[in-house]
Amino acid sequence: MSSEYQARYDSWHRAPEAYWDEAARRIDWITPYEKVFDPAQGPFGRWFPGGTLNTAANCLDRHIAAGAGERVALIWDSAMEGRIARYTYRALRDRVAKLAGALAARGVAKGDRVVIYMPMVPEAAIAMLACARLGAIHSVVFGGFAAPELASRIDSAEPKLVIAASCGLEPGRVVPYKPILDAALERAAHKPRACLIFQREALRADLVPGRDEDYLDAEAAAVPHDPVPVAATDPLYVLYTSGTTGRPKGIVRDNGGHAVALAATIPMMYDVHPGPGSASEVMWTASDVGWVVGHTYIVYAPLLAGVTTVMYEGKPVGTPDAGAFWRVCAQHGVKTLFTAPTALRAIKQQDPEGALTRQHDLSKLEALFLAGERCDPPTAEWIAALLGRPVIDNWWQTETGWPISARFRGLGLTAFKPGSGGRPCPGYEVRALNPEGGLMPSGEVGALAIRLPLPPGCAPTLWHDDEGYRRAYLETFPGWYRTGDAGMVDEDGDIWVMGRTDDIINVAGHRLSTGAMEEVLAAHPDVAECAVIGRHDAVKGEVPLGLVVLKSGVARADAEIAAELVALVRERIGPVAAFKDALVVQRLPKTRSGKILRATMKQMANGAQPVIPPTIEDAAVLDQIAPLLSP
Ligand code: COA
Ligand code: AMP
What we know:
Blueprint: H1 3-14, H2 16-23, E1 37-38, E2 46-47, E3 52-53, H3 55-59, H4 61-68, E4 72-78, E5 83-88, H5 89-105, E6 113-117, H6 122-134, E7 137-140, H7 147-157, E8 161-165, E9 167-170, E10 173-176, H8 177-187, E11 194-198, E12 212-214, H9 215-221, E13 230-231, E14 235-241, E15 249-254, H10 255-270, E16 282-285, H11 292-305, E17 308-313, H12 324-332, E18 334-339, H13 341-350, E19 367-370, H14 377-387, E20 391-393, E21 405-406, E22 423-424, E23 430-433, E24 446-451, H15 466-474, E25 480-489, E26 495-500, E27 504-507, E28 510-513, H16 514-522, E29 527-537, E30 541-550, H17 558-572, E31 582-584, H18 598-605, H19 619-629
Parallel strand pairs: 4-17, 6-7, 6-8, 8-11, 11-12, 16-17, 16-18, 18-19, 19-20, 30-31
Antiparallel strand pairs: 1-2, 3-13, 4-5, 9-10, 14-15, 21-22, 23-24, 24-25, 25-26, 27-28, 29-30
Bound molecules: coenzyme A and adenosine monophosphate.
Keywords: Ligase
Organism: Acidiphilium multivorum (strain DSM 11245 / JCM 8867 / NBRC 100883 / AIU 301)
Protein name: Putative propionate--CoA ligase
């Protein structure tokens, strides 16, 4: 047990407001906040009310003013284009200020929304920071989502402007983004005033006259814009994530709490530091800016801390091989690598002995961070033995914006416990609760919950939906935030996250709603009813499996309908859903009240002993589908 970690955690627990007041000193405030926390505002309270700041200025201008303008802020490494580009803090600030000027010239002002639909190019980060500079609220949509998903986010966020790229680059194919944007805009009720399109050489897009403009031309012609002061409680971004319905939830991130919380995590968890002078240690998060991990640890947190961040366009395997991650680490002197366990499983499958690690100089790599899904102990043990470095599993969600639990290199706590998500970060008190809201004994699984108030940086509400926030997170266990994860806290205080308590599945580290997929299947004219469950996958962790009952009288071949269903999910939700399997069955198992037994089927599909509820309507249905489900 690290006494330094414990002392830090206890100091937060004893006096949370004093702890956060101290942490807030890492940030440049334009006007000081009136209170550290006000419990009377919003669903559970608001952090740093009365304060004003600018997040982009804290990410960029502040470091330049401190003499670090020539330090490298961002290294872009595209395995897809075979190109590397480096941006100093000054160069990045200059591009951000110009793009902010271009946005302002097109009417974007504080509080306006901008939707960003881009692959892993520096222009995506520049667009995010340009919005932050103006106090505009960005909403980044992951490139693997299809037009209807993009349209639903556009209709919810009502952006004044959309920033997109002409295409993304996936192994073996160019993904045209612009036609997806065009289809989404045709579908959406809300129409933005303009679209800025970043043209990539691999596939230039036709621009719609009067609506679309070239991103780089607009940036080049613009007058740089100064940072605009915003309230600590003003939104910095809205990031949509899967909820339990087909409609994504707009997770709101505010400016003040976000900056304070993120800046604090870098020395505490990562132990990555800027300097001396223009030098800096390098951190690399191999995620995508479309996910919260990308927002936090590719863009905002490293820049707030003034260190160097790597943005990688490519995959862990196939671009060109399973040594891609080790090549990037060696080439850029990466000190900490952050990825999802699925990426390691993909590497392990192709290079089980880790031979490719030995072809690269990993002497600067000090630790590996894992999140996005539960890391199975065999994978954790494999990579720990291979690298001989601390492996730090950390548990969080789009809602929290930064880790709920982790291990803490800066506080001397790195002991390895494969399968565990680590200790709570200062700011979070985590407990496993029983259905009545009572505490579970240590070591017993319950619903994981966080005692209110949530710390700075966590979503204070949902976009335009305080009530939805209360319903989704606060009502089940009064006084607690319901994480939607099941797990336990062991006798050492380590947290174990075992799975979701709702219908969300985690596919290759991507959070997806089976409910949303069921809505798509149910829309097929031949489908009477359906269920989607998560089935174990050796690389992706989980993949969706659809079971459908056809309407009576449908006489078409099952395989033909299944292929249509696979195509439909790809078209409506996107390739990221990885929906490749639909089975036609005669009936679905149900309780007498008509509830489909998804959990029981999931257990059967994953080789677990199924729990069959006594209220089952007809046990024979389970026997019928058992051979189809067997793993
Ligand atoms: N734009 C367009 N399409 C995209 C996309 C993007 N940004 N990202 C993924 N896709 C497509 C892929 O091309 C693939 O399409 P396909 O069905 O035609 O093959 C599909 O969406 C699924 O993609 P992905 O989940 O990336 O699976 P994969 O089989 O291509 O690769 C892994 C598997 C494990 C290598 C990959 O998922 C991975 O690197 N995962 C890490 C996840 C991660 O970083 N998560 C963030 C949380 S920390
Ligand atoms: P997202 O909002 O996309 O970041 O997904 C959050 C969900 O991913 C969590 O609620 C968990 O179910 C899962 N998750 C993320 N990190 C971990 C982790 N380290 N261990 C277990 N599950 C995790």
